[in-house]
Design brief:
Elements (H helix, E strand, L loop, with lengths): L1 E7 L5 H9 L3 H9 L3 E7 L4 E7 L3 H10 L1 H11 L9 H4 L1 E3 L5 H6 L2
Antiparallel strand pairs: 1-3, 1-4, 2-3
Length: 110
């Protein structure tokens, strides 16, 4: 399953947001991987539009695993203030985007 999501980073915090992601703590990286997310990327536009993408076998299970993992609590609390209109866990609040095209799927279609 491919998942794409959108968030808005506060304009005055863009540089700090980028710096915080330059070297994410190993325990947070492990928590993401242990939850079943892979091929995870974040893309940031200069106006703060953040697009995230990852692959997982079960997104609901991955979300629950991260929500229940104590390794994520500190990171997510620290990151919440970076986002516009965030009232809790940005990862859970992020608006999911609908996939409308995937090259490999169409190439493999009969």
């Amino acid at each position: 399953m491919r998942v794409c999501f959108q968030l808005q980073v506060r304009p005055g915090r863009l540089d700090e947001y980028v710096a915080r992601h330059a070297e994410v703590a190993p325990e947070m990286l492990a928590a993401i991987s242990d939850a079943g997310r892979r091929n995870y990327s974040l893309f940031l536009r200069e106006d703060g539009l953040l697009i995230g993408y990852y692959e997982t076998d079960d997104d609901e299970a991955a979300q629950r695993a991260l929500a229940d993992d104590p390794r994520t609590a500190i990171w997510e609390a620290e990151m919440a203030d970076f986002f516009v209109a965030s009232v809790g866990r940005p990862d859970q609040e992020a608006r999911r985007l609908t996939e409308v095209f995937h090259l490999e799927d169409q190439l493999q279609a009969p």
